[in-house]
Amino acid sequence: MALNSEDYVRGVYYLQKTQGAAKPSDLAKRLDVSKNTVTLMVQKLAEKGLLRYKPYADIELTAEGQKLAKKLTYKHRLIELFLAKVLHVPAGEVHEEACRLEHDFSKTSIHSIEKLLGHPRTDPHGQPLKM
Length: 131
What we know:
Mean pLDDT: 92
Strand order of the largest sheet: 1-2
Order of helices and strands: HHHEEHHH
Shape: elongated
């Protein structure tokens, strides 16, 4: 699966939430890419104002990056729930499928899914949809 910049933003967010910090090596491992690939993308995202990055330091989200990460996490978890509840995708497959779909669903589609599912509060894993 090809990664895009949103995967890096969400990866940093996930690492900060679960480990307290996002080290470049941990992000490389999470995304299954090389440390050099992480460095190049993180530099680009820092130029866009989504991350703060200094060599040999943890990666940090800016306020704008934090906002984007929360939005992406919400979309991902909502799509997982839709896949599980409506399409009956097995629990072990919803994450990978949601990773593929989360970048392509429009705001309109997300609102329709929210309405269809009755404005749920948790994903199929019991995690809150909104942070």
